[in-house]
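Entry 14. Ran structure prediction on the chain below.
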Amino acid sequence: MIEDVVKELGFLTLGTRFKRIGEALQAQTQALLTQHGIDMPAAHFPLLAALDWHGALSVGELSQAVGVSQPVVTRSLKGLEDSGLVQSEGAEGDRRVRRVALSPHGRALVVRAQRDVWPVLEASVAQVCASLQGPLLQQLAALEAGLHRTSLLERSAASIATQQAQQKSRPTSPRKEKAR
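Output, structure tokens:
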């Protein structure tokens, strides 16, 4: 087996390590979105979440809200506009500034994701991170190993199955029985 050079170089390659973990999380998030019938890049969800959180924003404000460069935001917005998830218009008083907001279709997608996907995704990431202890490089190794061993998709499926089993095993209250 070939040695993982990035892992072995420790702090020297920390940026690459974070990028690798980010790419694994992004790919596994994409699989989870696809499983839920959401056909859009996982990388676009922080933009949609920021627009849901703050309302209409300029490209610069959106860039600040998600912590990525304006060119990255501009490229992402192109895809979101083409998909009908956001709409933009010139800002009042200064047409050079473009304000971006969720479209009705985008708002519906965010509501659906908040209800069906985000809680499962958050619980799955929290689960893989729950056992992390000790020095940062050991935590990163444990996080990478956890993501490799059991994907977020598998974790979410197990979580959903557990929730469904718990719901089935709960006794039905007499009031609910009478209502039937």
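The first strand starts at residue 57 and ends at 58. Will compare against last week's run tomorrow.
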